[in-house]
Write a structure and sequence with these properties.
Distance between the termini: 37 Å
CATH architecture of the largest domain: 3-Layer(aba) Sandwich
GO biological process, one term: rRNA processing
Cofactor: Mg(2+)
Number of domains: 4
Strand order of the largest sheet: 15-16-17-18-20-19
InterPro entries: RNA-bd_AU-1/RNase_E/G, RNase_E/G
Structural class: alpha+beta
GO molecular function: endonuclease activity; hydrolase activity; metal ion binding; RNA binding; RNA nuclease activity
Strand content: 25-35%
Keywords: Endonuclease, Hydrolase, Magnesium, Metal-binding, Nuclease, RNA-binding
Shape: globular
Radius of gyration: 22 Å
Length: about 350
Amino acid sequence: MKGRVVVLGTLRGREAAALLVDGRLEDLLIEPAESAPPGVGAIFRAVVDRQMKGQGGVFVKLPNGLKGFLRETGGLAPGQTLLVQVSGHAEPGKALPVSLRLLFKSRLAIITPGVPGLNLSRRVRETDERARLEAIAAAAMVGCEFGLIVRSAAEGMDAAELAEDIAATRALAEAVSEDLAGGPELLVDAAGPHETAWRDWADPAPDEVDEGAAAFADHGIEDLVLDLLDPVAPLPGGGSIAIEPTRALVAVDVNTGADTSPAAGLKANIAAARDLPRQLRLRGLGGQIAVDFAPMPKKDRATLEQQLRAAFRAEGAETSLAGWTPLGLFELQRKRARQPLAEVLAEVMKEDRA
């Protein structure tokens, strides 16, 4: 089906959401196992543990024996109570990465307790509409020192609905920010797949939203998800890209396929560069990534880098393009924002067999 379709359903008994664009799977969210630690966005009341020299940060105590790792260390003392938010996915056996910079997100707004000021998404360009949204937002934040970002999904929104959304998000942020009494505790859990889909896939507005018990089956989502367990994915033009995570890094290999023409390398590499953000997003992969592009003249590297930068510019996950190594690999660093899909599906399969 053509267009942008949001599918809300279940996958093997887990709440899940999928985003299809012109029939292609663009994003996927699956509820983690009950045994998994809270995901990105969860907010804890935490207690500072002892400083660890040489670690570049400090560990904090979280509930249920969990540990968090905080890079902001200025002015912190052991035993101090503070509020932290999970900022990334932790590898097995490692502490959860957390931050002091709290974000309270809704579909239309983001409250930023540590960053005051009123801001509008740059994607809202029309002058009169920006002025209208600013006025609504300013009125909704009277008497509050927190910052506010009005998201692009608010463009054209009814004033009362936007004000209500901001008020609810503000109330949650104020309540949590004052809750410093006591020991380690989970105060706000990470949003589930359906809530996240409504919040983050609202702009541009979907052409269709399909939800229900049979929604995933109707769109063949499970088959598309299982295809992601294959490390090799086809590319337009006949090439392929192989993506294989290891303990140290994610290795990516680009092949031209049957095309042996002089331009085959650059053609396959550009196709891989354009699809790499989607593949990493769907597979839940991050950390250090090394790409072995297909052979091509060195003069074409600048063209390929332009394609890579354009492809990752629209990504939600923070990505740093490090550049070429002496051996001709291209390295990049991507934030670990999700549990790897292979781990999620392995847990699902294990539960099915139990």
